[in-house]
Design brief:
With 350 residues, the protein is an alpha+beta fold. It contains ten helices and ten strands. Strand 1 and strand 2 form a beta hairpin.
Length: 350
């Protein structure tokens, strides 16, 4: 009786075939599950002991892509063994092809994400760069999935080339209308990977200056010293000659001071050494030179050059202020007078 039931045909296949396929499918799932629980677990432990990240990436690919793909392959193989109607078999072939394309696209995106992760690690895991790379990754995902859909439709028999050719004229019009946006987009890529500036940098562009607060796909926002927000298109910044003070390792400072003509020559000769000593005793200041450089209309002019280590403007002002106070104190001790605009009138009594 049981043998007769098993020989019954349902949807073109014997009941026994369904039972055998079900057992084979369960066995396949068990083998994949064992592989997942034990083999991948062992691979993870091995990857944790190494210093490289390549093995971690491979384990992630196996766990996130290979294992689900094996499950689908098992189902596809079992179903393909049945006697199927032609349209069902054709649909299974299309479905299998689509699944392969989806997994290939996911692998490409994972590979790009891993490349960005390595690039980010080389740049000390900069939070701003990470945020920017996320924006780039979104664009790449759109391109990859768009390419995958076009490739799938083309292989399924749709005349994609004819559709693309038909869209060509419209595409030219759209490209002309969107050329500014595309230019800003490519400028964004240039800013992210070339890094002429980053969030937090103080820059000067033409007559404008401020601190970078946000770098977007289309625009970059700068907080000016006055407090208002300046919005630049990315192409404007990449096409401009800008000065980035955050990248400055030391700031060169040049200033002049004048003393009265009545200062004796002996003291004048001592002034460069006095100024040199003051600057050398000031923290974060590096002395360069001090010279008696010119005779002014009402003063003897000395030019002083030194460097402040670092790029912080407040630090530079603190150092300059300390040097100015020290010079004033030293001059007062020695009785040296600073010059200020005066006129001396000589009257001839004869």
């Amino acid at each position: 009786m049981n043998g007769i039931i098993l020989e019954q045909v349902f949807l073109g296949n014997k009941i026994s075939d369904y039972l055998i396929s079900a057992v084979a499918l369960l066995a396949s799932f068990m083998v994949i599950n064992i592989f997942k629980r034990h083999f991948i677990k062992r691979l993870k432990k091995i990857a944790e002991r190494t210093t490289t990240t390549v093995d971690d990436f491979l384990v992630k690919v196996i766990e996130k892509l290979a294992v689900p793909f094996l499950y689908l392959v098992a189902v596809y193989t079992i179903v393909k063994n049945f006697a199927l109607y032609p349209y069902v078999e054709r649909g299974m072939n299309y479905l299998g092809f689509a699944v392969v394309i989806v997994f290939v696209a996911r692998f490409v995106i994972m590979l790009v994400g891993y490349g960005f992760k390595i690039y980010l690690a080389k740049n000390s895991n900069d939070v701003t760069l990470e945020h920017s790379l996320q924006g780039v990754l979104i664009v790449i995902k759109v391109l990859v999935w768009g390419g995958a859909i076009i490739f799938s439709l083309d292989n399924l028999g749709f005349k994609i080339s004819a559709i693309i050719a038909g869209l060509g004229i419209g595409g030219v019009a759209v490209a002309l209308a969107a050329q500014t946006i595309l230019k800003d987009l490519f400028s964004y890529f240039s800013i992210i990977f070339d890094q002429p500036f980053k969030v937090g940098d103080f820059i000067i562009v033409g007559d404008y200056m401020g601190t970078i607060e946000y770098i977007g796909i289309k625009t970059t926002r700068i907080r000016s010293l006055g407090g208002e927000m300046l919005v630049f298109s990315n192409s404007d910044l990449t096409d401009s000659r800008l000065r980035n003070y955050k990248l400055m390792e030391k700031r060169r400072v040049v200033f002049k001071l004048g003393v009265v003509y009545q200062v004796p020559t002996k003291q004048l000769k001592e002034l460069p050494k006095i100024i040199e000593g003051i600057i050398k005793n000031t923290k974060d200041a590096v002395f360069d030179r001090a010279h008696f450089c010119a005779y002014g209309d009402f003063s003897l002019i000395f030019e002083v050059v030194y460097y402040v280590v670092g790029s912080d403007y407040n630090k530079y002002m603190d150092v300059q202020q300390e040097i100015n106070f020290s010079i004033k104190e030293e001059f007062e001790k020695r009785g040296i007078e600073f010059a200020y605009p005066t006129q001396t009138l000589y009257v001839n009594k004869n």
